[in-house]
Design goal:
Blueprint: E1 7-12, E2 20-28, E3 39-42, E4 47-48, E5 54-59, H1 61-64, E6 73-81, E7 87-89, E8 93-95, H2 102-106
Antiparallel strand pairs: 1-5, 2-3, 2-6, 4-5, 6-7, 6-8
């Protein structure tokens, strides 16, 4: 992911997304002392894709700017199937954080 940009993440699911009772996705960065991390997203923050067994979630530009390019970030999903109650999860995925110049991060092209 690139700091200061919107980043989308996709997770393969063992069940269709509409069969989940809940889902939690957590983004964190070991060694980053920021009190703005971790970032937690819930099922209501997620979107489906063309594949019903795929879940998509995004971090906003403001959220990605909380991460440091000095460390790898991690993301992990945990969810529950609504019918059989099975709770499942993903292994933590390592995410490379690419830098964005602070001067361009602070620039707002919509402002004159």
């Amino acid at each position: 992911m690139i700091r200061g940009t919107t980043a989308q993440f996709k997770f393969k699911l063992p069940y269709p997304m509409n069969e989940l009772s809940w889902a939690t996705i957590e983004f964190w960065q070991p060694n980053n002392p920021s009190n703005l991390l971790p970032i937690t997203k819930r099922l209501v923050h997620c979107d489906s894709s063309d594949d019903s067994k795929e879940l998509c979630v995004s971090l906003t530009a403001e959220e990605t700017s909380r991460f440091s390019e000095k460390y790898k970030a991690k993301v992990q999903l945990r969810a529950q199937h609504i019918t059989n109650g099975t709770v499942f999860g993903s292994r933590p995925e390592v995410v490379t954080v690419y830098p964005m110049s602070d001067s361009i991060l602070e620039e707002n092209p919509s402002m004159p």
